[in-house]
Amino acid sequence: MSAAKPVLLILGSGANIGxxxxxxxxxxxxxxxxxxxxxxxxPEQVPAYATDLHIKSDLEEPSSVPAVFEKVKEVLxxxxxxxxxxxxPDDPLALSVEDLNRDFQVNTASVLEAAKQAVxxxxxxxxxxxxxxxxxGNRLTDGPLPGFVDLGIGKNGSxxxxxxxxxxxxxxxxxxxxxxxxxxxxxxxDAL
Length: 192
Fold this sequence. Notes:
It holds the Pfam family adh_short_C2. With 192 residues, this protein is of the alpha/beta class. It has a single domain, classed as NAD(P)-binding Rossmann-like Domain (Rossmann fold), CATH 3.40.50.720.
């Protein structure tokens, strides 16, 4: 009997980066599950949207993340590798403490919870299975960009978390990726 196809879970999937990640991994034989705040796009809206499972979920509540992982295991039969993507706000200069706290929940606290769920799931996978957690990186971890204050705070907090997890879990064969290649190219090929 052949091995089950690996599963990718995209938390915060959109029609651009999320769709691109979904298509790239689907082309490599992955089953793809995705979450978003909205309903799954209709095929005519995003013809290439490659997901085997869509879950409506608002990552503003980190406590919602374990249920997402459970749903993926229930429907697709195994724990997923996870990737997260988010969209920056329009007016960071008007950022309030309440907005920063909300965005921190989405951009960093939910990443922490997703990383915990990934580690729990990785432990149950066969030794030959890929065990990679991908957090989409951007230039906000290289330095500040005017207009992206809360996203920069979240990306840098999560980048630090991912770097720490990468070092701590490397002996178990778990890989954590949060950055584009040095040439600003895609990480997808390197992560598979």
